[in-house]
Every structure is written in C-alpha cells, then in structure tokens.
Design a protein that fits this description.
Order of helices and strands: HHHH
Number of strands: 0
Number of domains: 1
Strand content: under 5%
Length: about 90
Amino acid sequence: MIVNIELTDLEFQALSVISYDPVEWITNAAKVRANAAIEEVVGGLIQSALANGEPLPSGTKHEIFENANLPTAKEVTDAANAEGQGDFPAAP
C-alpha cells in the first residue's frame, strides 16, 4: 500500500534537520508503529485467551492479527460518535 502525505516546506525543512532523509524517516516511523500495533494486538489476544482459559490463537503473529477481524480506530470512533458516547473530532 502506498500512503501519500503532504508537508509544508517548513515541515519538510524541520524533518531535514532531525533526519538524513525525511521520507525514509517517515516511512520507518510508520512501519515501527505498525509493527508495535501488531505486537500489542497479538499480545492482548494471547493474554485474553490465557486469562479466560481459552485456546491460544494459532499461527504466526501476522496470521493471528489478520484473523482477529478487529474494528479500525475510525470505525470505533465513528460508532462512539454516532451513539453519543464519544466526543471525538470527525476525521477530515
């Protein structure tokens, strides 16, 4: 998947001060956070199964994550806002 972002000249210049290659830095930051999310979700599923005496999920961490059928943060936020339970800003 390709994700495009738009930065102002100043934002790009600021990233150039802290990184050798801002595009590579942004790509790395996104990948590191995505991998952390995979670890958090898989760890949570395993802990939940252990706590509830359920069978542990099987497969690789990627398979476990993909088979979890979790809602996205957008779906959760939109549902909470629709039900009046959230006070989250709408996505642009």
